[in-house]
Amino acid sequence: MSRLLIAVFSILSHLPLAVLQAVGVALGWLVYLSSPRYAARMRENLAQSGLATDAVSQRRLLRQAVSATGMGALELVIAWGRSPTSIARLVKNCNNWHIVEEALAQNKGIIFITPHLGNYDIAGRYLSQRLIKRPQPIQLMAMYRPPKMAWLEPLMNAGRVREGGLTAPATAAGVRMVMKTLKARQTTIILPDQVPGQGDGVWAPFFGRPAYTMTLAPRLAQMDGVEVILFFGRRLGWGRGFEVEIARLSEPFTGDKTTDGAKLNQAVEQLIRQAPAQYLWSYNRYKTPAGVAPAETPNP
């Protein structure tokens, strides 16, 4: 079955980007209009962010976000179905690649951090392809949370391991794989805005509201010879492709979990502000994981 699904995705992935995005917009609105809970969460998260200052701009941002979320879902067909070389041709520009080269020149392992913003999978495939084709090839290991729908996992991994890419599940064994990769001065990608499980996070503000935030990325950043680099894949106009933005972490992590959780969320917020309509506002970012005490409510 997995081979059949991979073959189907490979065929569909060669549809024009504009066609997939158009279908994605329709899908995005279908889900939004048919799921009151989904729609309410998206509206609530957007309002919480404060990125739209009045009712008119809130409605505009909501419409854009609904469409962008659907586009992102259909673009996964490309991210998982095409070769990294083919995907790289969709990236029309990459800003600040020199940050990556400077870290590699200093013989550092790199933790690439990207939230669910724009198309993180296509941007990740671009990084993987560009790193592996350097004169001194560097491998990229993508850390991922196994999906609830098990049939998706072979599709995800089939796309991510093409042309030298690596994957590691977000498990204890996967963390050991990532640590080994960083010690070898290779690179990894971590998505910092997924809600971690009990014991793997701290409460930290995210757009002014407590969100249970991973401690893994800041902890790995304390390893010797490791640098943290931020990036995301901005979606350009309809069918025009993508642009990869790369940035340094403004302040290094300290080793204090609470402080670093806040720093991590601040870094994510800064990326989101560059393309707010392209963030995955439908995600239940503020949920309380099983077994975790709720965030303390500040005294009035």
Automatic annotation (TrEMBL):
GO cellular component terms listed in the entry, alphabetical order: plasma membrane
Keyword Cytoplasm (UniProt): no
Record flagged with keyword Acyltransferase: yes
Entry's Gene Ontology molecular function annotations: acyltransferase activity
InterPro entries listed in its UniProt record: LipA_acyltrans (IPR004960)
Keywords assigned by UniProt, alphabetized: Acyltransferase, Cell inner membrane, Cell membrane, Membrane, Transferase
Predominant location: membrane
Subcellular localization: Cell inner membrane
GO annotation terms (biological process): glycolipid biosynthetic process
Protein name (database record): KDO2-lipid IV(A) lauroyltransferase
